[in-house]
Amino acid sequence: MTTFTNAQNSIGIFQNQFDIGNTQTGSATYNAQTQEYTIEGSGNNIWFNHDGLHYICTQLKGDFTLRCNASFIGKGVEEHRKFGWMIRSSLDSTSACASVAVHGDGLTSLQYRKNNNDTMQEVKSTLTSADIIQLERHGNMYIMSVARNGETFTEDSIQLDLGDDVYAGLFVCSHNAAVKEKANFYNVRIVIPAPATLVPYQQYIGSQLEILNVETGHSNIIYQSPRSIQAPNWMKDGKHLLYNSDGLVYKFDLSTNKPEVLNTGTVINNNNDHVISFDGKMLGLSSGKNNDNISKVYTVSINGGEPKQITPTGPSYLHGWSTDGKFLTFVGQRDDEFNIYKIAADGSGKEIQLTTAKGLDDGPEYSPDGKYIYFNSVRSGSMQIWRMKPDGSNQEQLTNDEFNNWFAHVSPDGKWVVFISFGKDVDPSNHPFYKHVYIRLMPADGGKPKVIVALYGGQGTMNTPNWSPDGKYLAFISNSDFISPIYPTEIPVPNQ
């Protein structure tokens, strides 16, 4: 776990700021309310065998990922003014380094100096005028990932040895030591990934609870924990979230940024498949009661109490509640197949099978108008988003692309669907922890999805309905072993 304390010269999550090389005095500010950074810097260039820039940075070691959205403020003077992420061996102007640089004329490149005093080299991206920039270090591989808003990343990489201990941060260079330029940075993230030795579902890294403004694309970290918190579910009052952690369900107060345990009686092995009824009065749970590790479906008052068991057998994982409150829809493993079922919400009657295709069907969720159940299915070869009528008829595929798409959640007005997208490196039937993933948005009837968040997460990020009641925000979980004191933090860890 990488944890930093507040330093006298700290700026947000960064420890310090510096003017490097031939430059005027620069500055950096952090807006705690919007979690945005503004950097003003000068500098003659970042090229040849020396650099001039204003730099806000933190010392890191090992593997990590740096990500943000960014843009210049104002028209500027020089077409080769630049901003971006930079990793340096030292603060000397001739230091070996690697950076993702977006220039004033749109040129976007991975610039690097192999050794101190070497001439700078670069790999030009095929993408210009990047809005989202990411620089990842994996061993001695440095990976540039860049995108325009709404699009997926374009990647380039190099091999480079900068040593284990490095400086990492954001920079602005005016390309003219006589002037200063400004840039704005938001969604700024330092991600310390899970180690290669991590045992899934037994070991975990830290979690960040984030709230995304769907219209603007700005996402704020409102809470962080060194343990695993999962699946934020927005309550109907708009003032609280529910999430699960270590088998318990927590009610999170958005006004105080503090959680408290919700009483679920003897059902204390709750997983990340929990759903609130459309009227907001009931909570559905998926839990392996009595430590049998076989998930079954339960319901309980939204205020807590002793839950009622609904599904007699398992594994059963709850994902949806009908708009009229009469049915629950879940994925059940029966006869070595995972299919979608529904059952009366009061526990009466038998479960009704809705899908029969070979392969995994999962994540069934009712649309707010009650006309459809959205779900994800691997039946076409990769995991894609589908929908069907509530009786299981008219099953139609809505996405068909290179990603493995999971957990469609329909906006309260029924117009949009968000879902999480895993890359081709992930088994289509799996949605693991700790991967680079996207949250994407598309019209509810289908269409080209657009990226609204790029993050490090996966399992537990958004397994449950996560729209705010007004449809303006999404709650989700990202992961990192980087803990900063500028965000509300769960320390010490409960029950340990």
Main sheet, how many strands, which sense, barrel?
A: 7 strands, antiparallel
Count every helix, treating DSSP H or I runs of 4 or more residues as helices: 0
Name of the CATH architecture of the largest domain: 6 Propeller
**CA radius of gyration:** 24 Å
CATH topology of the largest domain: Neuraminidase
The separation of the N and C termini measures 16 Å
Mean pLDDT: 96
Strand order of the largest sheet: 2-7-16-9-10-11-12
Which outline best applies? Answer: elongated
CATH-assigned homologous superfamily of the largest domain: TolB, C-terminal domain
Count the domains. 2
Strand content: over 45%
Content-based structural category: mainly beta
Task: Flag low-confidence runs.
Answer: 2-7
Counted beta strands: 41
CATH class of the largest domain: Mainly Beta
**Relative helix content:** under 10%
How would you sum up this structure, described in words?
It is a single chain. The strands form ten sheets. Strands 2-7-16-9-10-11-12 form a seven-stranded antiparallel sheet, with no helix packed on it. Strands 3-4-17-8-13-14-15 form a seven-stranded antiparallel sheet, with no helix packed on it. Strand 3 (27-31) and strand 4 form a beta hairpin. The chain folds into two domains: 2-191, Jelly Rolls (Sandwich); 207-483, Neuraminidase, CATH 2.120.10. With 496 residues, it is mainly β. The chain is built from no helices and 41 strands. The radius of gyration is 24 Å and the shape is elongated.
